[in-house]
Each structure stands twice: as C-alpha cells, then as structure tokens.
Amino acid sequence: MLWMYLGFITLVLILLALDLGVFHRHAHVISVRESLGWSAFWIALGLLFSGFIYLGYNNHWAGLGLTPDIMASKPVEVEGVGLVYNNGSQATLKYITGYLVEKSLAVDNIFVIAMIFSYFAVPAMYQHRVLFWGIVGALVMRGVMIAIGVELIHRFEWIIYVFGGFLVVTGIRMLFAGESHSTPDRNPLVKLARRLMPITERYHGQHFFVRGGSAASHEPPVPGAEAETDAVADTAKAGALMATPLLLALIMIEFTDLIFAVDSIPAIFAITADPFLVFTSNVFAILGLRSLYFALAGMIDKFHYVKVALSFVLILVGVKMLTHVRLKALLGENFNLYLLAAVLTILALGIVASILRPAKKE
Fold this sequence. Notes:
Elements: H1 2-23, H2 32-59, E1 76-78, E2 82-84, H3 88-119, H4 127-155, H5 159-176, H6 188-196, E3 209-211, H7 229-235, E4 241-243, H8 245-269, H9 275-287, H10 289-296, H11 306-322, H12 324-331, H13 335-356
Antiparallel strand pairs: 1-2, 3-4
Helix pairs in contact: 2-3, 2-9, 2-10, 3-8, 3-9, 3-10, 3-11, 3-13, 4-8, 4-9, 5-8, 5-11, 8-11, 11-13
C-alpha cells in the first residue's frame, strides 16, 4: 500500500512542478478564459482518476479495498483475498461523492481568499503564485489531518458520531451566521510575523522575501503599511532579510485553509473511512482550487445562495454520519448513491435560486 501512496504523491508533485515551473513560470494576470480552461483540466483529471480507482479496487492492487471501512455497507469474503470492504464500483462512487463534497466546500474558501487579496491589495499577476504555495501547504496539512482522523476512527469508532455532531452544528451556525468582517491584520499569525521580522511597505515582484537595501520597488504601498514604514526602515539594515506583504497574504490563506479543513475533513469521513479514497479525493478537489478561484472570483457575489446550500450539505453529511448504521440497513449498499444525488440537488438549487433571485445591490 505504501508504494501506492508514494506513486500518487509523485504524480501530484510532477503536476505541481509543471504548473509553476512550465505553464506559469512568468507572473501574469490569469484571464477568465485561461482559468476556465485550467478548471476544466483539473476537474477532468480528477474524474479520470476514478477510472484508476475502479480498476485498483476491483483488482485489489496493493491491498486496495481491503482496509476496514465502517462506512461500507457490508464486507464480503472473497476466496484468496479476504474481507473486501470496497469493490471497484463502491470505491468509485465514494471517491466521486467525496470529491464533489470537498470541491463544493472549497467554493466557500474562495469568498475568503478574495477578501484576503482585496485587503492586502495583492496585484492580480502575483495571485497565482500565492495560491500555488497556499495549495502546497494545504495538501501537507490535510494529509496530516487525514492520517490522524483515520487513526482515531480505527481506534475509537465512536468518534464518528462526534464528527457528525460537529458537522451538524457547523452547518447550522453557517446557515444563520452573518457575513464575517474580520480584519486580517488582527490575525495572531500575522501579528506574530510582523513582530518576528520587518515587513516591506511595498511588493517586490512575486518575492516573499527580499534583502534590505535592495532595489526600490515601483509597486504601490500596501494599505495600512504606511504607518509602519519608519519602523521598518530603522530595523532593516542593508542586506537584512525582509518579508514582503505577499508573505502575509500567504500566511492568511494557509490559516483560513486550516480552519476550512476542520469542517471538510470530517465531511469526507461521512462517506468513507478508507484512507486512500479520503486522501486522493481531497487532493484532487484542492488542486483545482486556484483555477476555480480565478474563474469565480468576479462572480462570487452573484451566487449568494451557494453559501446556504453548503450549509445544508454540511448538515446532510453530518446527519448521514450520525445515522450511518441505520441508513445502511434501510437503504442497502447504494446509500452513498443517494447521498451523491442529494448533494447534487442541494447545490443545483443553490445555484438556481441565486440566478432567479439576485442579491440586492447596497
């Protein structure tokens, strides 16, 4: 099983290297047309991987499908193989459902990313670089959280009910909570970064760090940074390492993804506890977040009911997690198919409602 994870991680690293080192080697403004093309590419790649899931779990490559899964309808004894918890069709359905749920929840992250970029006045041509490294950090954090979550579920099966209750409460809070207007500068990590190192007043290209006394930047000053200009000038000696505002934006994006992962990781466990399915569906959902941001950033205000739909998705998967034993007995092995249909219906209703009842302009 280890070589399966290593092979998948190698594939992801190759894709990321091609993305930043070849296709986006030079900083430029990502157009809507380009972002739609990349979004289609990442979605197609994620769906194509379901073919590998089907073949791998049908033939039990490296033990795929043999890992205990409390969300499986019923393990089947196969001669010469042992207990099979997920065959090809079951694993594919769970992968696609998990991918869709994680992709949907990632949309809510786009609203926050747009706010962060707006607050720090990040130039459009540098936003892709920030998102790229933000995604890399998110993949590492989620990998660790998934590993911990799987271990907890295998050791303490009752914790699945804790996750379910948490998702229901989170969904209800999201449904009735107003818009957040928190200021990124009040974030403790941003405050800590400002205390630990001097921050330049302006951007220096797409660099996260520069040396004090380096060539002056022609970028406009970052809002809110003017008050700290003198302090920066006093502490930054020639040749001293200084952070740019681009690093602060990256820190905020990493922090917000960590917060969103607290919701999304339990949500995938409502569908399957198979670690390979959880990890791969999460990775492919996150990989396309950059291009999805550039495709939707200018239209997020038009889909104001999508946030409401995501609240109901969280409540739905939480209830499913709390009642998974009864649902398996009542609906049989296709109960994940019903969950997939319900999630698609909720998201479609949110999009249609946003189109039919546009938000009122303030």
